[in-house]
Design brief:
333 residues; seven-stranded mixed β-sheet; 12 strands; globular; three-stranded antiparallel β-sheet; alpha/beta; 14 helices
Length: 333
């Protein structure tokens, strides 16, 4: 869970320090573990343990670029209890708290108990994010990712149970169902437009249209979630070490992807789909990921998560499973 609120100015305090440990792999793939002071960062911890040279000396910064491409875990005994106490402190002092929770085969059974815990604390919202088939996750936890069928069914079962629980915390499941208990309503993320007449000039991704992500080695990507795939497949939209950001945002592959509209998908495999008017082409990052392509043409490929949602009847199943709740994403409305 990620706490998205700061500890308020209050007399009470929660000490998040202690015997923190940092673990990961070095540039050769060998396991690494060392002490990690809090507050602090990965580079500082590795430097104190004499595992890397001083990044601020000479050209050493170039020699430690690999750190940004590896996954690092910071942990200590009792960290979960401290996080929960911190949430309680924030809520007690009037701050809103939202929790992000990853879901996969190993922890899917914990989602309802987790929701109940957060609701009882007074957390405003919970986001349940499906751990996708991203390259780094597959390398670290192979076969732990829920298939789309498993994910859709598990989160539908969760939504049905949650809708009957009496809990008031808002819940959003990744690319799927959003629950608004206080309004006895829900919305469906795959339904971008309610009318079957698609919004031809609507952007495929409003987030990409309004932001730019930069990797640790200077590559620009439409969103952070795509960085690993771009790196693994040698895809580049430009690099800040080779051109200023102003030039990269003025023209080129990044701008074309950011300004891609639903109408631009008309000549792609999505063009003849009867559901395009509702999903608006879905997520372009997922389209690229599931296409398996190693070039930017994959950005126009279909987002199979939305295809499965509509073609396999998940829309109808949700509507039938949540009677008495208002569907705010009713198609054809």
């Amino acid at each position: 869970m990620t706490l998205l609120a700061a500890i308020c100015f209050a007399a009470a305090q929660i000490d998040l320090a202690g015997d923190w440990r940092l673990s990961g792999t070095d540039e050769k793939g060998s396991a690494v573990e060392c002490a990690a002071a809090v507050p602090g960062d990965v580079h500082s911890a590795l430097l104190r343990a004499n595992l890397i040279p001083d990044p601020f000396w000479g050209c050493n910064e170039t020699n430690v670029q690999w750190i940004g491409f590896h996954d690092w875990i910071r942990q200590r005994k009792g960290a979960q209890e401290s996080a929960i106490a911190s949430m309680e402190l924030c809520v007690k002092n009037g701050l809103e708290v939202v929790s992000n929770t990853q879901v996969n085969r190993k922890n899917v059974h914990t989602m309802m108990p987790t929701a109940r815990l957060l609701n009882d604390i007074g957390v405003r919202g919970m986001r349940i994010i499906r751990t996708t088939e991203a390259p780094r996750w597959e390398e670290n936890a192979a076969n732990s990712c829920l298939s789309l069928e498993e994910y859709y069914q598990a989160m539908l079962d969760f939504a049905v149970e949650y809708s009957k629980s009496g809990m008031m915390m808002e819940v959003e499941t990744w690319q799927y169902i959003g629950l608004l208990p206080k309004l006895q309503s829900y919305y469906l993320k795959p339904v971008k437009f309610a009318s079957s007449e698609r919004m031809d000039k609507g952007y495929c991704c409003n987030c990409t249209h309004s932001m730019v992500a930069v990797t640790s080695d200077g590559e620009i990507v439409p969103c952070n979630q795509m960085s690993g795939y771009f790196l693994k497949n040698g895809i580049s939209m430009g690099n800040l070490h080779q051109a200023p950001l102003r030039d990269l945002l003025g023209d080129g592959a990044f701008v074309k992807s950011a300004n891609m509209t639903v109408d631009d998908l008309g000549n792609s495999e999505c063009g003849t789909c009867e559901h395009l008017g509702y999903c608006g082409g879905g997520c372009r990052a997922l389209g690229l990921l599931y296409s398996g392509r190693r070039e930017l043409t994959g950005l126009t490929c279909k987002d199979v998560t939305k295809c499965r949602f509509f073609e396999d009847g998940w829309y109808q199943r949700i509507v039938q499973s949540l009677p008495g709740w208002t569907n705010l994403s009713e198609v054809g409305a």
